[in-house]
Design brief:
The chain has 116 residues and is mainly alpha-helical. The protein is built from 5 helices and no strands. Helix 1 runs antiparallel to helix 4. The structure holds fe (ii) ion. Fe (ii) ion binds next to helix 1 and helix 4.
Length: 116
């Protein structure tokens, strides 16, 4: 099943790559329609993008996520069921970074506004 999902994610990557190339190419319909679109607020929040982020920035983030999904699924497809999870340490480090970032944001808000 992981191999199938890996190929499905690979197809998503190829689609995002194709869209991004067209969006970045002047003279294409996607460039005309989407080159100057701002990123949706939801995307800015989810990927912590700056206020002036664009739709192109959003697509690049989605593409990066799909690339990771592809790699994870192909990795799992090549493992035995009792092999150790090679992504566990990376997820622990990401969780620690996210916790520290959330803690820093909470401290900053308390400093600015004096509480919750
Ligand atoms: Fe995915």
């Amino acid at each position: 099943m992981h191999r199938f999902v890996g190929y499905l994610e690979q197809t998503a990557c190829e689609t995002y790559h194709n869209i991004i190339v067209h969006l970045e190419t002047p003279g294409t319909k996607l460039h005309t329609e989407w080159a100057n679109l701002p990123a949706p607020d939801m995307a800015k929040g989810y990927w912590k993008l700056p206020d002036d982020a664009t739709w192109l920035d959003t697509l690049r983030c989605i593409y990066a996520d799909e690339s990771h999904h592809r790699d994870v699924n192909h990795t799992f497809a090549s493992m035995e069921s009792d092999d150790p999870n090679p992504f566990l340490q990376m997820h622990k480090e990401d969780a620690t970074r996210a916790w520290k970032l959330a803690e820093a944001e909470r401290t900053l808000k308390e400093h600015r506004y004096g509480g919750s």
